[in-house]
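dude i think i finally got it to work??
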Amino acid sequence: MKEHKLKQLLFNRVGTYDDNLNQLNYTVVTDSKEIIDHAVDYFIVPCPELIYPSKSYAVAILYAHLLEIKFQDSFYESLNDPELFCGNDKFFVCYRDDQKIYDEILNRIGYGSNFILKLDLPQIAKTVKYFEQEFSFDGQPA
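look at this
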């Protein structure tokens, strides 16, 4: 197991989160178009409301992106990792299990050629903070 994945696993065994779905209000959408639209919004506008599984798709893309940048992990291998979130996201599906939705989200956010991560968006900043906490279990920045 890669060292950074071990740190994530250890953090998830002992860490605490303030976004436990059992303690939050959230909306579930089932229409593919709505899922995609809300996931795309996650990358371009403030999203104060939690909408699933859209958030799960967006955060998976963000985590895979950060894993690629920080640890040179393959973007698509990360998206295909069933343990990307250590089992903590009941809405997460791997890329191979819903490639059509992932590809549409990636296309609409311009992932690849002209993708710019908007760190000033509250939900992006919060996700990056969680990522940094998870992958720096020893106290060192990820």
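Residues 47 and 123 are 7 Å apart (CA to CA).
im so relieved honestly
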